[in-house]
Amino acid sequence: MENHRVYKMSVAGVYPHYINKAEKKGRTKAEVDTIICWLTGYDETALQRHLQIKTDFETFFNQAPQLNPNVSKITGVICGYRVEEIKEPLMQKIRFLDKLIDELAKGKAMEKILRS
Fold this sequence. Notes:
InterPro entries: SP1917_dom_sf, UCP033199. With 116 residues, the protein is mostly helical. The protein contains six helices and two strands. Strand 1 and strand 2 (81-82) form a beta hairpin. The radius of gyration is 13 Å and the shape is globular.
């Protein structure tokens, strides 16, 4: 998994794709924001600020207040890789987010997505 180009991509550049993926399946922007905030520890204001200033993924995750302690419960395959087996910490965090958005788009209940 050597595609580190994603680290320098703007979260704001990918965010509309997360929203589109969710909305196509009848889910909402608010649910996407809830997932991002749950994963990273950002509040809604901080998330919107990072989107506005076009923070890259590396900075976004490095500055995250606290990765949710339940991330170890996120398992499964995304982009052909088991998220729990990804060795590169930053790539794993990005794939955790991808996996959670994927679960949202597949109709999973928010309580299950947020590992409540």
